[in-house]
# Entry
Amino acid sequence: LSRMYGPLTALSNVQVDVMTALVSFDRVFEVLDLKPMVADRPGARPLKTEGAPGVAFDHVVFSYPAAEDVSLASLESIARADSAPAKEVLHDVSFTVEPGQLVALVGPSGAGKSTMTHLVSRLYDVNEGAVRIGGQDVRDLTLASLNETVGVVTQDAHLFHDSIRKNLLYARPGATEEELWEALAGAQVRGLVEAMPDGLDTVVGDRGYRLSGGEKQRMALARLLLKAPAVVVLDEATAHLDSESEAAVQRALSTALAGRTSLVIAHRLSTIREADQILVIEDGRIADRGRHGELLARGGLYTELYRTQFARQETLDPLAAK
Ligand code: ATP
# Structure
């Protein structure tokens, strides 16, 4: 997401923080006076689901929209000098995340992992095939119900320049004081806020109380806990993997993902070890799939990714290195 919204930072003084993690896209577009790439179809229905629904990609083919579509989602394409022909980014991608399960995406940079997560929250529509939540094509669902069902946490978890209370209430207006503290506790950040001079009324952000990257991600997880979506799409932060907060982030993640259907771009050893299924993405295709042990045993690209991205965490990550 941050990639997609990047050019906007230069184009506008609007508080771009608004546009990341867990926001209602309707409101963002209102602020920016731009149209999203997708809209409710006539006859769109709210998502009906009891408990966490499954998520399925069914022969999905996808290219980013061409540059001439002047809209938020294609600003990045416009910014690209070589944007003219729409390059196919995902080719015939099929997989299922069963209700309540965790599927991890791994793969080289540019393979298409973020693009897959964008399609779950329907930032774009597929060219062919379908993305389904609870068996229902996301194009047949109202964007409002999709926004309620799918919680998105990006790598770069931004907070508004405002109090912690307001930052949290944005995820669930009307949450009680007790619920706010409960969410902070679940996200392993309660002690931090309790120790701040103004507690929940402490102003955070670039011009306020400065949180570390790991703390920001845990605040985003507190917002996720308040929003309590049935489906979570998460891009794990890479920047703070070896910090002392690693164990806390890990506990916060386990709490935030428990009982939800999760699609996670994995950077943590603990996540790939716990994943019900790992999808190895290469050049817009699923090159391999399975659990950590079986993929490692097969060798190939996964073993290579493990060596370069995850193996060094064996020593850094005492909880995961069992
Ligand atoms: P990383 O690990 O570096 O984040 P990724 O696996 O998430 O990479 P994607 O961001 O999904 O990969 O990118 C897949 C392909 O789509 C790349 O070729 C990328 O250049 C292209 N791409 C990504 N976003 C856009 C966009 N908004 N417009 C056009 N092309 C895009």
User: Anything to note?
Assistant: Confidence is low (pLDDT under 50) at residues 1-27, 29-35. The first strand starts at residue 55 and ends at 63. DSSP finds 14 helices and twelve strands in the chain. The CA atoms of residues 188 and 248 lie 6 Å apart.
